[in-house]
Amino acid sequence: MTEPARILVVGGGYVGMYTALRLQRQLRAELRAGTVEIVVVTPEPYMTYQPFLPEAAAGSISPRHVVVPLRRILDRCRILIGEVRSVDHAKRTAALSTLATEEEGTGGIELTYDELVLAPGSVSRTLPVPGLADHGIGFKTVEEAIGLRNHVIEQMDIASSTRDPALRDAALTFVFVGGGYAGVEALAELEDMARYTARYYHNVKPEDLRWVLVEASDRILPEVGEDMGRYAIRELRGRNIDVRLETRLESCEDRIAVLSDGTRLPTRTVVWTAGVKPAPVLAATDLPLNERGRLRCTAHLAVEGVEHAWAAGDAAAVPDITSGEPGKECAPNAQHAVRQAKVLAENVAASLSGRPLTEYAHAYVGSVASLGLHKGVAHVYGRKLKGYPAWFMHRAYHLSRVPTFNRKARVLAEWTLSGLFKREIVSLGSLEHPRAEFELAAAPPPADGDKPSS
């Protein structure tokens, strides 16, 4: 019996999920006949819709509605929960580890393939800032978003109950590093949430909270244009948010954020959103990379100079053929990723059947960003919007982009309910240590000598 042609999709994010979804539709007959197999290797069994992470952190959307279960939507694909460690494309093999291989202790497994789709996404780009690894918090996953929400409310609880003014000030100081989408939207949504939450504390007022945005360049939100970026700064500063431009985080050791302008901020919260870099697995392949560590690709989304290898999204350097500027590449954002996945799937299917390939061409239409409830900025098709219209456009656009009707309906229902009822202000920090209560109950009783004297 002839082995099926195996399409290996590395990554279950935007590009990985959408590519596999379109492939299983286009190759329905081949999958049914057993002549083609689609294997998706991903660290998590779900795709995270990252533009909704700030709203999940603020409590506007339930965490489970920010993610899409891959096994449900990719029901004709084989899903492997694990990580690809290296790729030898010359031999058409990938070395990977799964949850089972870790439990078995037998090492990784080797998977052969005929077509390779590399879409591992990106990871946080950190710098060697002293103390960052010990005290920094990222904002790329739903776990980090919910953990940050719990952390912020927990700091307000600490400030409310302590008698130490220094501890109180540190607990109520929140430093965000990075003025891109992730940093600005996360800070704006959480500040909105914390300001609302403060009304339920008898001794914490909104003006007691100190929010600081640190950005190394001279502007924030460059994607929405200079004018809208300046408006965003005015909006944030109008809410007593301290925006520091052309400033870097030098250290955060001993829970003190030291900035390049000499400012020292005792704080228990440093959120790092200062950019991303390609996933490390790309460096463990024999495929061509550019100076930024991304895969060199053609406009057909094929990896340059090799056959049967494809890439898109954050991992790929795709030429922007709609731009008149030579050498310009498509920005690594969701707007391109979703559209690239469509062309990528069509080209993989065309390659299998010997049909001609299609070039990816999409002119960037603009960007929208939320600055908290009913506030936002947008620069779309040359038009500039701010305030409520931009915020509404932000929600409408991302509601249309989130996968599956199920998720769209649930998100819309939650937005409707949150408009009718009060915000949730509950912190479920114990979720991060679910066995702590049981371990305490199961611990042996203290010896007689350890009992406190009466």
UniProtKB/TrEMBL annotation:
Domain FAD/NAD(P)-binding: 6-341
Pfam family, one: Pyr_redox_2
Alphabetized GO MF terms: NADH dehydrogenase activity
UniProt keyword terms in alphabetical order: FAD, Flavoprotein, NAD, Oxidoreductase
Domain of life, per lineage: Bacteria
PANTHER family cross-referenced by the UniProt entry: NADH DEHYDROGENASE, NADH DEHYDROGENASE-LIKE PROTEIN RV1812C
Family membership noted in the UniProt record: Belongs to the NADH dehydrogenase family.
Protein name as it appears in the record: NADH dehydrogenase
The organism of origin for this protein: Streptomyces gardneri
